[in-house]
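Tutorial sheet, problem 5. The two components below are modelled jointly, 243 residues in total.
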Amino acid sequence: MYLLRAIVRPEKSPVVMKALFNAGFPAVTKLAVFGRGKQRGLKVGDVTYDELPKEMLMIVIKESDKDFVIETILSSARSGEKGQFGDGKIFVTPVEESYTISSGKRD
Amino acid sequence: MLIRRILTFKSLEIMKLILAIIRIAKMTETKQLLSDAGLPSFTAMSVVGRGKGHGDLEKIIETAAPEHRELISAVPRLKSKRMITLVVTDAQKDLAVETLLKANQSGESGDGKIFVLNAIDSVRVRTGETGDITLD
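Model answer (structure tokens):
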């Protein structure tokens, strides 16, 4: 099992979630975050915006689905064909155990 | 497992990072039970999300005015939850999971999920200490 943390543009998050839902992956947790990448934010005139609003989507998937889900997120979150700075990142971490609380059982 | 082999060169301490997505209304009881179990430390975030099921969709359709029923989306709606993050020692992991289940299990869908991940290290900002001693 893997946890995917996808940091995407806020306006892209409904697009990504819809693409995931249509691909058979409806379960997702979303949170509002702020951040910046190597570009150190955005400079507009004299003002530097060094904390940019993004949304983090968290999805836990089986190993066999990992590549497909990553590809789905990448293609739906990219802005335009070539993409731009600020499109975001996906981080992948292994999950040791998963429990469904309503049944109390380990998945 | 690869992570365990790397760590035997440094130390045998392995920690667990536990992510629990729970109902907002269950926060008070969860905090109380975790504290009683000797695991008071956590970080909480407001999140929205959904699982696989349609949960209360039928109830929503039933209670909606007839002219609104066709407007109700079949896509599961995003529900507000709390996500709490705990980092505990390997030995405390089972206690943490049991406590979270005890506080949050009602049997209804929407109770949430618990994910257990490995954490490589923990650092106390105040002192710079690392390792299990920072997990109080």
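Marking note: Residues 93-104 of chain B form the longest helix (12 residues). Full credit if you identified this.
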